[in-house]
Protein backbone atom coordinates (compact mmCIF):
# COMPACT_ATOMS: atom_id res chain seq x y z
CA UNK A 1 0.00 0.00 0.00
CA UNK A 2 1.34 3.39 -0.92
CA UNK A 3 1.94 5.83 1.92
CA UNK A 4 1.14 9.51 1.55
CA UNK A 5 2.35 12.32 3.76
CA UNK A 6 1.87 15.94 4.38
CA UNK A 7 4.99 17.63 5.68
CA UNK A 8 5.11 20.44 8.19
CA UNK A 9 8.14 22.46 9.27
CA UNK A 10 7.60 24.65 12.30
CA UNK A 11 10.17 27.07 13.62
CA UNK A 12 9.46 28.47 17.04
CA UNK A 13 11.16 31.30 18.86
CA UNK A 14 11.60 30.90 22.58
CA UNK A 15 13.32 33.36 24.87
CA UNK A 16 13.93 31.21 27.91
CA UNK A 17 17.46 29.89 28.43
CA UNK A 18 18.76 26.67 29.92
CA UNK A 19 21.64 26.85 32.36
CA UNK A 20 24.75 24.97 31.32
CA UNK A 21 27.53 23.55 33.45
CA UNK A 22 30.66 25.49 32.55
CA UNK A 23 33.16 23.77 34.79
CA UNK A 24 36.23 22.59 32.92
CA UNK A 25 38.04 19.48 34.15
CA UNK A 26 41.69 18.52 33.82
CA UNK A 27 43.04 15.31 32.35
CA UNK A 28 42.36 13.57 35.63
CA UNK A 29 39.09 15.40 36.33
CA UNK A 30 37.37 13.96 33.30
CA UNK A 31 33.87 13.64 34.78
CA UNK A 32 31.74 16.28 36.51
CA UNK A 33 30.89 16.00 40.17
CA UNK A 34 27.43 14.66 41.02
CA UNK A 35 24.93 17.37 41.94
CA UNK A 36 21.28 17.10 43.01
CA UNK A 37 19.90 17.24 39.45
CA UNK A 38 22.31 14.53 38.42
CA UNK A 39 21.25 12.34 41.34
CA UNK A 40 17.62 12.66 40.24
CA UNK A 41 18.55 11.49 36.75
CA UNK A 42 20.50 8.56 38.14
CA UNK A 43 17.51 7.56 40.26
CA UNK A 44 15.40 7.30 37.11
CA UNK A 45 17.80 4.84 35.46
CA UNK A 46 16.36 1.31 35.86
CA UNK A 47 18.12 -1.11 38.17
CA UNK A 48 19.91 -4.04 36.56
CA UNK A 49 18.28 -7.47 36.87
CA UNK A 50 19.72 -10.57 35.18
CA UNK A 51 17.48 -12.47 32.81
CA UNK A 52 18.60 -15.75 34.37
CA UNK A 53 19.31 -16.71 37.94
CA UNK A 54 22.94 -16.57 39.02
CA UNK A 55 24.87 -19.71 38.19
CA UNK A 56 27.46 -21.40 40.35
CA UNK A 57 30.39 -19.05 39.72
CA UNK A 58 33.02 -21.24 41.38
CA UNK A 59 33.65 -23.09 38.13
CA UNK A 60 34.77 -19.87 36.38
CA UNK A 61 37.93 -18.48 37.98
CA UNK A 62 38.67 -15.83 35.36
CA UNK A 63 37.32 -14.20 32.22
CA UNK A 64 38.83 -11.52 29.99
CA UNK A 65 36.43 -10.19 27.34
CA UNK A 66 39.04 -7.73 26.05
CA UNK A 67 40.70 -10.68 24.31
CA UNK A 68 37.60 -11.42 22.22
CA UNK A 69 37.32 -10.31 18.59
CA UNK A 70 34.53 -7.90 19.48
CA UNK A 71 36.73 -5.61 21.59
CA UNK A 72 38.43 -2.66 19.81
CA UNK A 73 42.11 -1.83 20.11
CA UNK A 74 43.37 0.11 23.12
CA UNK A 75 43.62 3.83 22.32
CA UNK A 76 44.48 7.16 23.91
CA UNK A 77 41.47 9.42 24.46
CA UNK A 78 41.60 13.09 23.52
CA UNK A 79 40.74 15.59 26.26
CA UNK A 80 38.22 14.93 29.01
CA UNK A 81 36.27 12.46 26.91
CA UNK A 82 36.68 9.41 29.15
CA UNK A 83 32.96 8.70 29.63
CA UNK A 84 32.36 8.52 25.89
CA UNK A 85 35.70 6.80 25.25
CA UNK A 86 34.68 4.04 27.64
CA UNK A 87 30.93 3.99 26.98
CA UNK A 88 30.95 4.30 23.19
CA UNK A 89 34.40 3.44 21.79
CA UNK A 90 34.94 0.43 24.07
CA UNK A 91 31.60 -0.81 25.38
CA UNK A 92 29.17 0.07 22.59
CA UNK A 93 31.62 -1.16 19.93
CA UNK A 94 32.07 -4.43 21.82
CA UNK A 95 28.37 -4.97 22.48
CA UNK A 96 27.14 -4.28 18.93
CA UNK A 97 29.97 -6.38 17.49
CA UNK A 98 29.09 -9.18 19.89
CA UNK A 99 25.46 -8.97 18.75
CA UNK A 100 26.47 -9.14 15.08
CA UNK A 101 29.40 -11.53 15.58
CA UNK A 102 31.84 -9.25 13.73
CA UNK A 103 35.46 -8.34 14.34
CA UNK A 104 36.57 -5.00 15.80
CA UNK A 105 39.76 -5.13 13.75
CA UNK A 106 37.66 -3.72 10.89
CA UNK A 107 37.27 0.06 11.28
CA UNK A 108 33.63 -0.11 10.19
CA UNK A 109 32.98 -1.99 13.46
CA UNK A 110 34.54 0.63 15.75
CA UNK A 111 32.30 3.50 16.86
CA UNK A 112 33.15 7.15 17.32
CA UNK A 113 33.32 8.47 20.88
CA UNK A 114 33.92 12.00 19.60
CA UNK A 115 30.46 11.92 18.03
CA UNK A 116 28.64 11.82 21.38
CA UNK A 117 31.29 13.79 23.29
CA UNK A 118 31.10 16.70 20.85
CA UNK A 119 27.36 17.03 21.29
CA UNK A 120 27.63 16.96 25.09
CA UNK A 121 30.80 18.93 25.86
CA UNK A 122 29.61 22.47 24.96
CA UNK A 123 32.26 22.60 22.25
CA UNK A 124 35.08 22.63 24.82
CA UNK A 125 37.10 20.21 26.92
CA UNK A 126 34.29 19.43 29.37
CA UNK A 127 33.75 16.07 31.01
CA UNK A 128 30.42 14.33 30.38
CA UNK A 129 28.33 11.44 31.69
CA UNK A 130 28.40 8.07 29.97
CA UNK A 131 24.62 7.58 30.12
CA UNK A 132 24.05 10.96 28.43
CA UNK A 133 26.02 9.49 25.54
CA UNK A 134 23.89 6.34 25.76
CA UNK A 135 20.79 8.52 25.32
CA UNK A 136 22.10 10.06 22.10
CA UNK A 137 22.86 6.65 20.59
CA UNK A 138 19.47 5.38 21.72
CA UNK A 139 17.90 8.47 20.13
CA UNK A 140 19.50 8.56 16.68
CA UNK A 141 22.35 6.03 16.46
CA UNK A 142 26.15 6.00 16.44
CA UNK A 143 28.51 6.42 13.47
CA UNK A 144 31.63 4.34 13.02
CA UNK A 145 35.09 5.86 12.83
CA UNK A 146 34.99 5.74 9.03
CA UNK A 147 32.04 8.14 8.87
CA UNK A 148 33.25 10.23 11.81
CA UNK A 149 36.97 9.63 12.55
CA UNK A 150 37.98 10.33 16.13
CA UNK A 151 41.53 11.21 15.21
CA UNK A 152 40.55 14.03 12.85
CA UNK A 153 37.77 15.62 14.90
CA UNK A 154 38.25 18.47 17.36
CA UNK A 155 36.09 18.77 20.46
CA UNK A 156 33.83 21.13 18.48
CA UNK A 157 33.26 19.14 15.29
CA UNK A 158 29.76 17.95 14.40
CA UNK A 159 29.15 15.37 11.68
CA UNK A 160 27.52 16.54 8.44
CA UNK A 161 25.99 14.43 5.68
CA UNK A 162 22.65 12.62 5.61
CA UNK A 163 24.16 9.30 4.53
CA UNK A 164 26.43 9.28 7.60
CA UNK A 165 23.50 9.90 9.93
CA UNK A 166 21.49 7.24 8.12
CA UNK A 167 24.32 4.74 8.54
CA UNK A 168 24.51 5.64 12.24
CA UNK A 169 20.78 5.01 12.74
CA UNK A 170 21.37 1.29 12.28
CA UNK A 171 23.56 1.09 15.42
CA UNK A 172 21.52 1.62 18.58
CA UNK A 173 21.40 1.25 22.32
CA UNK A 174 18.06 -0.29 23.23
CA UNK A 175 18.26 0.25 27.00
CA UNK A 176 20.69 0.64 29.87
CA UNK A 177 20.63 -0.01 33.60
CA UNK A 178 22.56 0.63 36.80
CA UNK A 179 23.76 -1.57 39.64
CA UNK A 180 24.82 -0.48 43.12
CA UNK A 181 28.17 -2.25 43.18
CA UNK A 182 28.58 -2.20 46.96
CA UNK A 183 25.16 -3.78 47.64
CA UNK A 184 24.94 -7.36 48.82
CA UNK A 185 25.11 -9.80 45.91
CA UNK A 186 26.31 -7.22 43.36
CA UNK A 187 29.77 -8.77 42.99
CA UNK A 188 28.22 -12.04 41.83
CA UNK A 189 25.84 -10.17 39.51
CA UNK A 190 28.75 -8.34 37.93
CA UNK A 191 30.78 -11.51 37.50
CA UNK A 192 27.84 -13.32 35.93
CA UNK A 193 27.30 -10.41 33.54
CA UNK A 194 30.95 -10.59 32.50
CA UNK A 195 30.62 -14.36 31.95
CA UNK A 196 27.28 -14.68 30.12
CA UNK A 197 25.68 -11.21 29.86
CA UNK A 198 23.24 -12.21 32.60
CA UNK A 199 21.15 -14.17 30.10
CA UNK A 200 23.05 -17.42 29.58
CA UNK A 201 24.93 -16.26 26.47
CA UNK A 202 28.20 -17.86 25.40
CA UNK A 203 30.01 -14.54 25.83
CA UNK A 204 29.66 -11.85 28.46
CA UNK A 205 29.27 -8.08 28.54
CA UNK A 206 31.27 -5.07 29.66
CA UNK A 207 30.62 -2.64 32.50
CA UNK A 208 31.05 1.14 32.84
CA UNK A 209 32.40 2.50 36.13
CA UNK A 210 34.46 5.39 37.43
CA UNK A 211 37.08 6.10 40.05
CA UNK A 212 39.19 9.04 41.21
CA UNK A 213 42.56 8.93 39.48
CA UNK A 214 44.35 11.93 40.94
CA UNK A 215 47.01 10.48 43.27
CA UNK A 216 45.67 6.96 42.86
CA UNK A 217 47.85 4.11 44.06
CA UNK A 218 48.90 1.80 41.22
CA UNK A 219 51.41 -0.91 42.06
CA UNK A 220 53.48 -3.45 40.14
CA UNK A 221 51.90 -6.87 40.45
CA UNK A 222 53.78 -10.19 40.36
CA UNK A 223 51.49 -12.39 42.47
CA UNK A 224 49.29 -15.32 41.45
CA UNK A 225 47.28 -14.73 38.28
CA UNK A 226 45.39 -16.52 35.51
CA UNK A 227 45.56 -13.56 33.13
CA UNK A 228 49.10 -12.24 33.46
CA UNK A 229 48.75 -8.48 33.86
CA UNK A 230 51.52 -6.69 35.73
CA UNK A 231 49.78 -3.78 37.48
CA UNK A 232 47.03 -3.37 40.07
CA UNK A 233 45.11 -0.40 41.47
CA UNK A 234 45.58 -0.69 45.22
CA UNK A 235 43.43 2.35 45.94
CA UNK A 236 41.75 5.09 43.97
CA UNK A 237 42.79 8.71 44.52
CA UNK A 238 41.38 11.84 46.08
CA UNK A 239 40.20 13.76 43.02
CA UNK A 240 39.55 13.71 39.31
CA UNK A 241 36.81 11.17 38.59
CA UNK A 242 37.61 9.08 35.52
CA UNK A 243 35.44 6.63 33.54
CA UNK A 244 36.87 3.22 32.73
CA UNK A 245 35.70 -0.22 31.57
CA UNK A 246 35.45 -3.52 33.43
CA UNK A 247 36.21 -6.27 30.91
CA UNK A 248 36.68 -9.33 33.13
CA UNK A 249 37.89 -10.73 36.44
CA UNK A 250 40.54 -12.99 37.95
CA UNK A 251 39.78 -14.70 41.26
CA UNK A 252 43.44 -15.50 41.98
CA UNK A 253 44.69 -11.93 42.25
CA UNK A 254 45.95 -10.97 45.72
CA UNK A 255 46.50 -7.29 46.54
CA UNK A 256 47.35 -5.91 49.97
CA UNK A 257 44.76 -3.12 49.75
CA UNK A 258 45.22 -2.09 53.39
CA UNK A 259 49.04 -2.10 53.11
CA UNK A 260 49.31 -4.04 56.36
CA UNK A 261 51.72 -6.64 55.02
CA UNK A 262 49.21 -9.50 54.93
CA UNK A 263 46.55 -10.68 52.46
CA UNK A 264 43.10 -10.89 54.03
CA UNK A 265 40.26 -12.95 52.51
CA UNK A 266 38.55 -9.81 51.24
CA UNK A 267 41.75 -8.83 49.39
CA UNK A 268 41.63 -11.84 47.06
CA UNK A 269 40.20 -11.46 43.57
CA UNK A 270 40.05 -8.52 41.20
CA UNK A 271 38.33 -7.16 38.13
CA UNK A 272 40.28 -6.55 34.94
CA UNK A 273 39.82 -2.96 33.87
CA UNK A 274 40.71 -1.20 30.63
CA UNK A 275 41.72 2.46 30.50
CA UNK A 276 41.67 4.85 27.53
CA UNK A 277 45.09 6.39 28.08
CA UNK A 278 46.87 4.36 25.41
CA UNK A 279 48.63 1.02 25.25
CA UNK A 280 51.60 2.30 27.27
CA UNK A 281 49.45 2.64 30.38
CA UNK A 282 50.04 -0.31 32.72
CA UNK A 283 49.78 -3.65 30.86
CA UNK A 284 48.75 -2.64 27.36
CA UNK A 285 46.04 -0.40 28.83
CA UNK A 286 44.89 -2.97 31.42
CA UNK A 287 45.19 -3.38 35.18
CA UNK A 288 43.56 -5.21 38.08
CA UNK A 289 41.03 -3.57 40.40
CA UNK A 290 40.52 -5.55 43.63
CA UNK A 291 36.94 -6.53 44.45
CA UNK A 292 37.45 -4.85 47.80
CA UNK A 293 37.40 -1.41 46.14
CA UNK A 294 33.68 -1.92 45.49
CA UNK A 295 33.08 -1.69 49.22
CA UNK A 296 35.49 1.02 50.32
CA UNK A 297 34.14 4.57 50.58
CA UNK A 298 34.70 6.55 47.39
CA UNK A 299 36.42 9.29 49.43
CA UNK A 300 38.76 6.71 50.99
CA UNK A 301 40.21 4.83 48.03
CA UNK A 302 37.07 3.10 46.78
CA UNK A 303 35.56 3.31 43.31
CA UNK A 304 32.85 5.78 42.34
CA UNK A 305 32.11 9.47 42.24
CA UNK A 306 29.74 10.13 45.12
CA UNK A 307 28.11 6.74 44.59
CA UNK A 308 29.06 3.15 43.74
CA UNK A 309 26.91 2.63 40.64
CA UNK A 310 28.11 0.75 37.59
CA UNK A 311 26.28 0.68 34.25
CA UNK A 312 25.41 -1.89 31.58
CA UNK A 313 23.78 -1.49 28.16
CA UNK A 314 21.67 -3.56 25.79
CA UNK A 315 22.16 -2.84 22.08
CA UNK A 316 20.23 -3.58 18.90
CA UNK A 317 20.53 -3.43 15.13
CA UNK A 318 17.89 -1.13 13.71
CA UNK A 319 16.41 -0.66 10.23
CA UNK A 320 15.11 2.91 9.87
CA UNK A 321 11.71 3.01 8.18
CA UNK A 322 11.04 6.76 7.85
CA UNK A 323 13.68 9.45 8.24
CA UNK A 324 14.21 13.14 7.59
CA UNK A 325 17.01 14.93 5.80
CA UNK A 326 17.43 18.48 7.10
CA UNK A 327 19.82 21.13 5.81
CA UNK A 328 20.47 24.02 8.17
CA UNK A 329 22.57 27.17 7.96
CA UNK A 330 22.93 28.76 11.39
CA UNK A 331 25.53 30.59 13.50
CA UNK A 332 24.88 29.41 17.09
CA UNK A 333 23.90 25.75 17.31
CA UNK A 334 23.10 25.66 21.03
CA UNK A 335 20.10 27.91 20.35
CA UNK A 336 18.30 25.09 18.56
CA UNK A 337 15.95 22.48 19.96
CA UNK A 338 14.38 19.98 17.56
CA UNK A 339 11.12 18.11 18.10
CA UNK A 340 9.70 15.64 15.60
CA UNK A 341 6.08 14.57 15.35
CA UNK A 342 3.44 12.77 13.30
CA UNK A 343 -0.34 12.99 12.93
CA UNK A 344 -2.93 10.68 11.41
CA UNK A 345 -5.10 13.50 10.10
CA UNK A 346 -3.68 15.23 6.98
CA UNK A 347 -5.36 18.45 8.12
CA UNK A 348 -4.03 18.30 11.68
CA UNK A 349 -2.45 21.38 13.19
CA UNK A 350 -1.12 19.43 16.19
CA UNK A 351 0.87 16.22 16.37
CA UNK A 352 -0.61 12.99 17.69
CA UNK A 353 2.84 11.75 18.76
CA UNK A 354 5.99 13.74 19.37
CA UNK A 355 9.58 13.08 20.32
CA UNK A 356 12.25 15.49 21.49
CA UNK A 357 15.49 14.76 19.68
CA UNK A 358 17.96 14.76 22.55
CA UNK A 359 20.83 14.87 20.09
CA UNK A 360 19.68 18.31 18.92
CA UNK A 361 18.49 19.87 22.15
CA UNK A 362 20.55 23.01 22.83
CA UNK A 363 23.88 21.22 22.65
CA UNK A 364 27.38 21.87 21.35
CA UNK A 365 28.12 25.39 22.61
CA UNK A 366 27.85 28.79 20.94
CA UNK A 367 29.43 27.80 17.61
CA UNK A 368 28.61 27.40 13.94
CA UNK A 369 26.75 24.18 13.12
CA UNK A 370 29.83 22.13 12.20
CA UNK A 371 31.94 23.75 14.94
CA UNK A 372 34.44 25.58 12.73
CA UNK A 373 34.83 29.26 11.92
CA UNK A 374 34.39 29.37 8.12
CA UNK A 375 31.18 30.20 6.30
CA UNK A 376 30.97 26.56 5.21
CA UNK A 377 30.85 25.53 8.90
CA UNK A 378 27.55 27.39 9.30
CA UNK A 379 25.96 24.74 7.11
CA UNK A 380 25.12 21.21 8.17
CA UNK A 381 23.11 18.32 6.75
CA UNK A 382 21.63 15.98 9.34
CA UNK A 383 19.38 12.94 9.45
CA UNK A 384 16.59 12.31 11.97
CA UNK A 385 14.94 8.95 12.59
CA UNK A 386 11.12 8.99 12.72
CA UNK A 387 10.78 5.19 12.91
CA UNK A 388 9.70 5.14 16.56
CA UNK A 389 6.81 7.51 15.84
CA UNK A 390 5.82 5.65 12.67
CA UNK A 391 5.57 2.43 14.69
CA UNK A 392 2.96 4.15 16.83
CA UNK A 393 1.03 5.65 13.87
CA UNK A 394 1.89 3.50 10.81
CA UNK A 395 -0.54 5.37 8.54
CA UNK A 396 0.57 8.84 9.57
CA UNK A 397 -0.34 11.34 6.88
CA UNK A 398 1.33 14.40 8.28
CA UNK A 399 4.90 14.73 9.52
CA UNK A 400 6.23 17.58 11.61
CA UNK A 401 9.58 19.10 12.37
CA UNK A 402 9.63 21.77 15.04
CA UNK A 403 12.74 23.82 15.64
CA UNK A 404 12.70 25.99 18.73
CA UNK A 405 15.12 28.89 18.87
CA UNK A 406 16.09 29.53 22.47
CA UNK A 407 19.09 31.87 22.89
CA UNK A 408 22.02 30.44 24.85
CA UNK A 409 24.71 33.10 24.88
CA UNK A 410 24.78 35.07 21.64
CA UNK A 411 21.60 34.72 19.55
CA UNK A 412 22.34 33.06 16.23
CA UNK A 413 20.83 33.61 12.84
CA UNK A 414 20.17 31.44 9.84
CA UNK A 415 17.69 29.34 7.91
CA UNK A 416 16.30 25.88 7.46
CA UNK A 417 17.59 25.40 3.93
CA UNK A 418 15.58 22.29 3.10
CA UNK A 419 13.53 19.55 4.71
CA UNK A 420 12.52 16.21 3.22
CA UNK A 421 11.19 12.83 4.33
CA UNK A 422 12.52 9.48 3.10
CA UNK A 423 10.24 6.43 3.38
CA UNK A 424 12.17 3.13 3.27
CA UNK A 425 9.21 0.82 3.95
CA UNK A 426 8.71 -0.31 0.37
CA UNK A 427 12.39 -0.56 -0.51
CA UNK A 428 15.29 -0.22 1.95
CA UNK A 429 17.74 0.61 -0.82
CA UNK A 430 15.63 3.17 -2.68
CA UNK A 431 13.30 5.18 -0.45
CA UNK A 432 10.37 7.26 -1.61
CA UNK A 433 11.23 10.90 -1.01
CA UNK A 434 8.83 13.68 -0.01
CA UNK A 435 10.23 17.18 -0.28
CA UNK A 436 8.99 20.34 1.40
CA UNK A 437 8.68 22.88 -1.41
CA UNK A 438 9.43 25.90 0.78
CA UNK A 439 13.14 26.45 1.33
CA UNK A 440 15.47 28.87 3.12
CA UNK A 441 13.02 29.46 5.95
CA UNK A 442 14.40 32.07 8.33
CA UNK A 443 14.81 30.93 11.94
CA UNK A 444 13.56 34.00 13.74
CA UNK A 445 9.83 33.70 14.48
CA UNK A 446 6.85 31.33 14.61
CA UNK A 447 6.63 29.97 11.08
CA UNK A 448 4.45 27.11 9.86
CA UNK A 449 4.98 25.46 6.48
CA UNK A 450 2.80 22.69 5.04
CA UNK A 451 2.43 21.06 1.65
CA UNK A 452 0.19 18.37 0.21
CA UNK A 453 1.31 14.84 -0.62
CA UNK A 454 0.71 15.52 -4.32
CA UNK A 455 3.20 18.37 -4.44
CA UNK A 456 5.75 16.85 -2.11
CA UNK A 457 5.96 13.35 -3.45
CA UNK A 458 8.22 14.26 -6.33
CA UNK A 459 10.19 11.01 -6.48
CA UNK A 460 8.55 7.66 -7.04
CA UNK A 461 10.06 4.25 -7.73
CA UNK A 462 8.44 2.83 -10.85
CA UNK A 463 9.14 -0.39 -12.74
CA UNK A 464 6.01 -0.26 -14.88
CA UNK A 465 6.63 2.83 -17.01
CA UNK A 466 6.96 2.56 -20.78
CA UNK A 467 10.66 3.51 -20.51
CA UNK A 468 13.16 0.68 -20.90
CA UNK A 469 16.91 0.72 -20.32
CA UNK A 470 19.59 -1.66 -21.63
CA UNK A 471 22.01 -3.26 -21.14
CA UNK A 472 21.39 -3.92 -17.45
CA UNK A 473 23.81 -4.79 -15.88
CA UNK A 474 26.06 -2.24 -17.56
CA UNK A 475 29.83 -1.85 -17.31
CA UNK A 476 31.63 1.13 -15.82
CA UNK A 477 32.36 3.57 -18.61
CA UNK A 478 29.77 1.89 -20.79
CA UNK A 479 26.77 3.36 -22.59
CA UNK A 480 23.26 2.86 -21.28
CA UNK A 481 20.52 3.08 -23.93
CA UNK A 482 17.11 4.41 -22.96
CA UNK A 483 13.92 3.85 -24.94
CA UNK A 484 11.55 6.80 -25.49
CA UNK A 485 14.47 9.06 -24.61
CA UNK A 486 12.89 11.93 -26.45
CA UNK A 487 10.47 12.22 -23.52
CA UNK A 488 13.28 12.51 -20.96
CA UNK A 489 14.49 15.97 -19.91
CA UNK A 490 17.19 14.94 -17.44
CA UNK A 491 18.94 11.77 -16.27
CA UNK A 492 20.58 11.38 -12.83
CA UNK A 493 22.68 8.50 -11.51
CA UNK A 494 22.11 8.02 -7.75
CA UNK A 495 23.85 5.70 -5.31
CA UNK A 496 22.19 3.75 -2.48
CA UNK A 497 22.68 6.65 -0.05
CA UNK A 498 20.65 8.98 -2.25
CA UNK A 499 23.70 10.89 -3.46
CA UNK A 500 23.69 12.11 -7.07
CA UNK A 501 26.84 10.75 -8.74
CA UNK A 502 26.29 12.46 -12.07
CA UNK A 503 23.47 14.11 -13.98
CA UNK A 504 22.88 15.13 -17.58
CA UNK A 505 20.32 17.35 -19.31
CA UNK A 506 19.12 15.44 -22.36
CA UNK A 507 18.75 17.02 -25.79
CA UNK A 508 16.40 15.92 -28.52
CA UNK A 509 17.84 13.06 -30.54
CA UNK A 510 20.08 11.64 -27.82
CA UNK A 511 19.70 7.92 -27.20
CA UNK A 512 22.32 7.06 -24.60
CA UNK A 513 23.71 7.91 -21.18
CA UNK A 514 27.38 7.26 -20.37
CA UNK A 515 28.19 5.58 -17.06
CA UNK A 516 31.24 7.14 -15.31
CA UNK A 517 34.29 4.89 -15.28
CA UNK A 518 35.56 5.98 -11.85
CA UNK A 519 32.69 4.77 -9.65
CA UNK A 520 32.25 1.68 -7.50
CA UNK A 521 30.42 -1.34 -8.81
CA UNK A 522 27.04 -2.14 -7.30
CA UNK A 523 23.36 -1.22 -7.40
CA UNK A 524 22.36 2.28 -8.47
CA UNK A 525 19.21 4.15 -9.35
CA UNK A 526 18.68 6.01 -12.61
CA UNK A 527 16.34 8.97 -12.11
CA UNK A 528 14.50 9.86 -15.30
CA UNK A 529 12.84 13.28 -15.30
CA UNK A 530 9.92 13.69 -17.71
CA UNK A 531 7.74 16.73 -18.25
CA UNK A 532 5.26 15.98 -15.44
CA UNK A 533 6.73 13.03 -13.62
CA UNK A 534 9.88 11.41 -12.33
CA UNK A 535 10.72 7.72 -12.57
CA UNK A 536 13.37 5.55 -11.00
CA UNK A 537 14.99 2.57 -12.67
CA UNK A 538 17.26 0.21 -10.77
CA UNK A 539 20.51 -0.67 -12.56
CA UNK A 540 23.54 -2.79 -11.75
CA UNK A 541 27.00 -1.46 -12.66
CA UNK A 542 29.81 -3.98 -13.09
Provide a count of the helices.
8
- Relative helix content: 10-25%
The overall average pLDDT, rounded, is 87
The N- to C-terminal Cα distance equals 33 Å
Count of β-strands: 26
Spatial strand sequence of the major β-sheet: 13-12-15-1-19
Polypeptide structure, described:
- The chain has about 550 residues and is an alpha+beta fold.
- Helices cover about 15% and strands about 30% of the residues.
- It is built from eight helices and 26 strands.
- It has a five-stranded mixed beta sheet. Strands 2, 4, 7, 8 and 9 form a five-stranded antiparallel beta sheet that branches.
- A hairpin with an 8-residue loop joins β16 and β17 (about 430-435).
- α2 packs across α4.
- The protein is elongated.
- About 45% of the residues are buried.
- Residues about 1-25 and about 450-465 have low confidence and may be disordered.
Task: Offer a few descriptive terms.
542 residues; alpha+beta; five-stranded mixed beta sheet; 8 helices; disordered N terminus
Brief synopsis:
This protein is α+β, with helices and mostly antiparallel strands and 542 residues long. The protein contains eight helices and 26 strands.
Secondary-structure map with pairings?
Elements: E1 6-13, H1 36-44, E2 62-64, H2 82-100, H3 113-120, H4 130-140, H5 162-169, E3 171-180, H6 186-196, E4 207-214, E5 217-220, E6 231-235, E7 239-254, E8 268-274, E9 286-290, E10 309-317, E11 322-330, E12 336-343, E13 353-361, E14 379-385, H7 387-392, E15 398-405, E16 414-423, E17 432-435, E18 441-442, E19 447-451, H8 453-456, E20 469-470, E21 479-482, E22 490-494, E23 500-505, E24 512-514, E25 522-529, E26 534-541
Parallel strand pairs: 1-15
Antiparallel strand pairs: 1-19, 2-7, 3-10, 4-7, 5-6, 7-8, 8-9, 11-14, 11-16, 12-13, 12-15, 16-17, 16-18, 20-21, 21-24, 22-23, 22-25, 25-26
Helix pairs in contact: 2-3, 2-4
Amino acid sequence: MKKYFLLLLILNFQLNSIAQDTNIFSRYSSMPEINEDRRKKIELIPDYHPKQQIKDLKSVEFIDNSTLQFFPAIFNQIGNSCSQASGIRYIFSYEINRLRNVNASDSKNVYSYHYTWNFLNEGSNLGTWYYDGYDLVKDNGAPNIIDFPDNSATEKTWMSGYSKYYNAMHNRIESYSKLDAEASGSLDLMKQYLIDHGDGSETGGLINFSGKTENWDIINYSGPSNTGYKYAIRNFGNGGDHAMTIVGFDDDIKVDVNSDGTIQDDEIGAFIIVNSWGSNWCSNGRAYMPYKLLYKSWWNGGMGNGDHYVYMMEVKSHEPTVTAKVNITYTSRNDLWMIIGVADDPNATYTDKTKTMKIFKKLGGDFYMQGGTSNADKQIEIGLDYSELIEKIPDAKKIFLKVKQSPEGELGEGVITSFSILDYRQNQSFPIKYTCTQTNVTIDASIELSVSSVSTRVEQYSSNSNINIYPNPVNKGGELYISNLQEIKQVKLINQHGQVITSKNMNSGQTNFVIPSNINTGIYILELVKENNIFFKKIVIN
